[in-house]
């Protein structure tokens, strides 16, 4: 077993060797510009791009014509939200609905729209991280132009009710955008049934390369966008710029593998995740963050009370994981996602996100469980909060000198 | 974030972890910080009859730099009089541990912990 053990598949995934193999020829012999129409170098590159477009479309039940290449999910989110909101503002209005637990690529884009004169509603989630449909309905206004809700949350892995939200939006004539960066290969996505107008994808969360993504743009009913990148009119004018052929081919292959192996892989990953959860549940004062049922198989977000996340990460440096504590940033703010779930600051600071993936082994999970038991005990022996908890003091009744 | 060798040393082998009897009249206890901010330090000093700190213990909830800062000050205050201990500056702690700018607050907290522990001791002695 090699150390450190990678348990941060929600941050990024390694490129599957099959994907890398498929990409390499497009760096050498098939290096042509897919926009070159006058020779075979261009035609070969174009064929690679179009095969990949079909593969991406196939994973999500879309028509290849509805797939627009971008540099990743952040760009897709920007193009979807800015592009649709600006295009339809004149006819529908200038109100946008999103959720407090969205990725920064959505939240910050919506903030920018506010600066440009739009109004925005940031919805609360329930304690389990899920959006309440009634809360969503209540936020809709006559001038609501667009709603953006993520499919799978990156921190706690909960799956939002996208099908139901789509029905509501379609009925009200609201453009519905979904950030699905964390969902591909994890949950079934069928855009022939879902009433979603725009959906963002990323390759590198699904064993493809970094720097490539896609935006699904519905054609029936047709969704129009204001381009954010102008130039040679690539991608039917939605997104100019020479296509990154090798990246695109990689994303296509990654999504082909995801489609073919998803069921089997999710079963295997879920067994490992459940083993990890079971192994950690006997540690006193631990709390799972987010709903366990409406959740992707590979995520476990857990708070070990009275142990601060960053020192925890330091203690378990054999495990590559993420912490909800942001002590590393100047702000000292703990995870806004966990705060939105109603977790108090101490538990938010004490959270660790484990994300399991294609190359995780049972041996690695066993090692992680054992290490966590030892280190948590060590840090709790160091923690004045643990002592207070053991003495039966309610930390919320203590007057802290905030600094 | 990468840590200095000294931070890692104090973090992996923290000095003087533990508790003293807070009701003992020769013990001063300082608890600073807040769980909401991600760090809480408890520093205790035991002062002998001639006003010299003869023992110090800490417990800290916080990042590696916070643990290292409090571990370091337990070493530094031992053998000092309470007034000498008060002269320890956060800048000295930060310099000794090579703390990066985002971790300076950890050294400030450690300085505050000394002040709080001394204040508690002095209060017990009617000063």
TrEMBL record, chain B:
Coiled coil: none annotated. CDD domains: IscU_like (cd06664). Gene3D superfamilies: 3.90.1010.10. Belongs to the NifU family. NCBIfam families: iscU. A scaffold on which IscS assembles Fe-S clusters. It is likely that Fe-S cluster coordination is flexible as the role of this complex is to build and then hand off Fe-S clusters. This is Iron-sulfur cluster assembly scaffold protein IscU. The lineage of its organism: Bacteria, Pseudomonadati, Pseudomonadota, Betaproteobacteria, Rhodocyclales.
């Amino acid at each position: 077993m090699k150390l450190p053990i990678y348990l941060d598949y929600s941050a990024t995934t390694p490129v599957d060797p099959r994907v890398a193999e498929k990409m390499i020829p497009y760096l050498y012999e098939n290096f042509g510009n897919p926009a070159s129409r006058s020779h075979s170098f261009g035609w070969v590159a174009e064929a690679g791009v179009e095969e990949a477009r079909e593969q991406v479309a196939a994973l999500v039940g879309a028509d290849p014509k509805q797939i627009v290449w971008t540099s990743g999910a952040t760009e897709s989110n920007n193009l979807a939200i800015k592009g649709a909101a600006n295009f339809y503002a004149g006819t529908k209005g200038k109100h946008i609905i999103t959720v407090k637990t969205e990725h920064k690529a959505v939240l910050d884009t919506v903030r920018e729209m506010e600066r440009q004169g739009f109004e925005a509603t940031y919805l609360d989630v329930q304690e389990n991280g899920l959006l309440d449909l009634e809360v969503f309905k209540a936020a809709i206004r006559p001038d609501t132009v667009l709603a953006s809700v993520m499919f799978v949350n990156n921190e706690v892995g909960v799956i939002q009710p996208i099908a139901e939200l789509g029905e509501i939006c379609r009925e009200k004539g609201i453009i519905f955008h979904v950030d699905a960066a964390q969902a591909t290969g994890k949950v079934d996505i069928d855009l022939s049934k879902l009433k979603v107008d725009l959906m963002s994808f990323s390759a590198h969360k699904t064993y493809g390369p970094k720097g490539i993504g896609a935006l699904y743009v519905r054609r029936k009913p047709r969704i129009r966008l204001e381009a954010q990148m102008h130039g040679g009119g690539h991608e039917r004018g939605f997104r100019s710029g020479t296509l990154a052929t090798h990246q695109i081919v990689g994303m296509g292959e990654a999504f082909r593998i995801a489609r073919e192996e998803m069921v089997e892989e999710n079963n295997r990953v879920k067994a490992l995740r459940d083993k990890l959860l079971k192994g950690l549940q006997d540690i006193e004062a631990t709390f799972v963050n987010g709903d366990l049922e409406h959740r992707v198989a590979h995520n476990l977000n857990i708070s070990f009370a009275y142990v601060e996340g960053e020192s925890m990460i330091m203690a378990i440096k054999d495990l590559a994981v993420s912490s909800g504590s942001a002590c590393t940033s100047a702000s000292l703010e703990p995870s806004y996602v966990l705060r939105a779930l109603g977790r108090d600051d101490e538990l938010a600071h004490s959270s660790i996100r484990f994300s399991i993936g294609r190359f995780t082994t049972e041996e690695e999970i066993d090692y992680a469980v054992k290490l966590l038991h030892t280190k948590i005990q060590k840090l709790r022996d160091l923690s004045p909060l643990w002592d207070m908890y053991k003495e039966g003091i309610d930390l919320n009744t203590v007057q802290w000198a905030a600094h | 974030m990468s840590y200095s060798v000294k931070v890692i040393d104090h973090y992996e082998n923290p000095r003087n972890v533990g508790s003293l009897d807070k009701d003992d009249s020769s013990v001063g206890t300082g608890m600073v910080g807040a769980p909401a901010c991600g760090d809480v330090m408890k520093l205790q000093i035991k002062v002998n009859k001639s006003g010299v700190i003869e023992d110090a213990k800490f417990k800290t909830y916080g990042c590696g730099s916070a643990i290292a800062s409090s571990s370091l000050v337990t070493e530094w205050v031992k053998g000092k009089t309470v007034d000498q201990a008060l002269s320890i500056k956060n800048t000295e702690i930060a310099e000794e541990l090579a703390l990066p700018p985002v971790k300076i607050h950890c050294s400030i907290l450690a300085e505050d912990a000394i002040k709080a522990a001394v204040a508690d001791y002095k209060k017990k002695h009617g000063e």
